[in-house]
Structure formats: structure tokens, C-alpha cells
Amino acid sequence: MQQSENQPAAIEIALWQYSKNEHDWNRWEQSLSQAERDRAATYRFEGDRASFIAGRYLLRRLLSLSIGTVPGKVVLSPDKYGRLRLEGRDTPQFSLANTDGLVTVAVASGCDHVGIDCERIGVEIEEAAVASYCSADERRWLAELPARERAQAAVALWTLKESHLKALGVGLREDPRNLAFSWKDGIPVMVDGGDRDRQWHHRLVDSGSQHVVALAACCQSGLPGISTRIFQDDSMPSE
User: Fold this and answer.
1) Transmembrane region positions (predicted)?
2) Could you tell me the domains of the chain?
């Protein structure tokens, strides 16, 4: 997608610690497509099923507001990389992530790419896993941190890289060690520094919970306006 240089870029992020009540899951499912309902039924564990349903429900709620329809009439289809896109539309760009009771969605206008990822702060990442996704410089930086800070920083790096690779649509087909970060004034910055890199913006988002949330966005018009809100499920089912 090519955007006008004068087009303002804006990203809305919604965070949702969704209900664990199965009655609510069934209500949310009414807004999903038949294919999504069929997929939800294939999950062996209830927690995975709830996470999937909640994610698609939140995504449909936000996109329906963006394009002016009801959630059940939002038509999603995968692109050649398997990423979901609005059928017949190039905009808005969007990304969905969920983990351990949290769902987050980013919806962007005026951006070429957007990706979001989330992970629980306390998750343990083994040394072998760190070596598989961190550059040599990042591993040296992590090794110099106190143990508690090191664990959280490792999770932050993981979510930053995941959000960037999701924005590109390549996932782990790209070696995450080739994507390195440092921090400037508390803000994560890609290390390479080329012209293309300057169009990328990365943020760690305050989730209001025990989760790390990372955003990646490529915007030619400069730093996008970013708004974050805690989603409240106050709707009735939509047909």
C-alpha cells in the first residue's frame, strides 16, 4: 500500500483482558464467520478456544467501527502470506495478538505496515531460545543486566521482533537475529539505521497488566499518532 506524504498516520490500540465465562464466549462467537466458528471448534483446550474467539471478536468490533458496518459483516480473508486482510480493501491495516488472557488489536491508517505482539512479563525464556532470536550485541547487553531486568528485557526483545516480523508478514521465515534493537531515550530503535529503517517506529505499550505489548509501524509520513485504550465489552450480539 502506498500512502500520500500528506496523509496523517494514526494507530488505535485496544487491550482486552477478556472474560473467562463460557456464556460470554458463546455470545462473542455469534459475530464470527462460519469458518471462524469451525476453527474455534477444533481447539482441544478451552483456553485456546476462548483466546481465538476473543481475538476475532475484538478485531471485528474495531474494524466494524472503522469501516462503518456491524462486526458480523466484516469480511476477512488471508493474503499470500496468510495474514488477515479486509476483503476488497487495502486499508485500514491491522494486527492481532493474544496471550494468557490478554487480546490486543492495532488498527492503523496512513501506515504501510503495522504489527503488534504481546507476552506475559514473567514468562521464562531459555538461554537457547534467547540465542536463537537475539543478535550478538543484544546477548551481550542482556548479560550485563541484573537477573530480574534481564528476564523482562528478553521478553521485550522477543515481542519487539515478533511485532516487526508480523508487520512485514514474514513471521519466523525471517531470522529474528538479523533484526537488532537498541534503546534511545527509553524508546526501542532498530540498529541498522538505513533510510528504510527511519520509516519504522517501535514502541513498548503500557498494557495496564502483567504483559509486555510491542508495536511496530512503517509510516512514510513520520511518527504516527498512537492512542491506547482498555476495551470494555458492552455490546449485544450483532447479526
Assistant:
1) none
2) 10-230 (3.90.470.20)
